[in-house]
Amino acid sequence: MGTLSHKFIMLGPTQWRGTGGFGMLSSSALCNLSSTRDVIGIIKLIKDNSAKSNVKRALLSARKKERIKLPKYEDSCRGKIYHVSEFLNDPAGVEALLNVDALESWKTLGSNTYRCTLPGIQLLNFEVAPVLDLQVNRTSDNCTVELLSCKFQGSDILERQNKHFSAFMENCITWDRNDSESFMDVDVKLDISLEIYNQPFLLLPVSAIEGPGNMVMQALLDRFVPLLLQKLLKDYDSWVQQQRKVSP
Predict the structure, then answer these.
(1) Which of 17, 19, 73, 139 is most buried by its number of CB atoms within 10 A?
(2) Which class for 124: exposed (0-12), middle (13-18), buried (19 or more C-beta within 10 A)?
């Protein structure tokens, strides 16, 4: 450790100034290092952060907007209008937003937060089940479904892939309250960050992965969003019919 007698030593990014992600520590600050072990720890931190900075990542994104006309449900005898905002603020509306009919299981984690397990799918010789943590935030004129986390359950090999990707999804639903004609707008955004760590993908430029990946994700949303709206309208209609039966 002869470098300790020098006037400066290298520090990691959390204490750096200068260029290249590293900086310098003056000799007066060496007094804060209680032992050689502290210096070794700093050097290890530099090595770890340097390795992380060299990780190749593909950033995939897609977005789909859709606008539909809402049916008008009015009970003239009672002078009541069953607006979509009432439906989405009802537990039945939350179940429709989560599309619980397509889930293997789901449960409440806390206030407006839900864990949804999708049916297992066969991937090569393994079965994997995606698990989504979703948060549903509702107001009188909008509703947002946000993906908090996405993980795979299954074999150890597949579960280890969880650390190599992250996902963000937001589904923002808005509507108007025009008595003559009402519309619903849906805006779905999906972003995925993939770590490129194995062959042959390491040999490819990131753009060669992002281009096809973005096309696949966009095709997924183009198909998914209209189906979501159809299911939402169907559940909305069923809820209205149920309300009419139970209303005094």
Answers:
(1) 73
(2) exposed
Q: How many CB atoms lie within 10 A of CB 133?
A: 15
Q: Is 165 helix (H, G, I), strand (E, B) or coil?
A: strand
Which tokens belong to 9? Answer: 């030593």
Q: What is the pLDDT of residue 244?
A: 84
Structure tokens at 113: 């937060």
Q: What is the mean pLDDT of the chain?
A: 77
List the Cα angle 206/209/212 in 5-degree steps.
140
**Gap between the Cα atoms of 148 and 162, Å rounded:** 14
List the one residue out of 101, 112, 127 whose CA is nearest residue 228. 101
Residue located via tokens 């603020």: 89
Residue 243: alpha-carbon gap to chain centroid: 34
How far apart (Å, rounded) are the C-alpha atoms in residues 193 and 206? 12
Residue 143: is it exposed, middle or buried by C-beta count within 10 angstroms (0-12/13-18/19+)? buried
Tokens coding 236 = 């909305």
User: Could you tell me the residue ranges of all domains in the chain?
Assistant: 2-53, 56-246
Question: What's the alpha-carbon Rg for the chain, to the nearest Å?
Answer: 26
Which CATH number applies to 56-246? 3.30.530.70
Residue 162 and residue 76: Cα distance in Å, rounded? Answer: 54
Q: What is the DSSP string of 51-63?
A: HHHT-EEEEEEEE
SS3 234: helix
**pLDDT 10s digits, 127-160:** 778 899 999 999 888 999 999 998 888 777 667 7
| DSSP, res 90 | S
Amino acid, single-letter form, for residue 49:
N
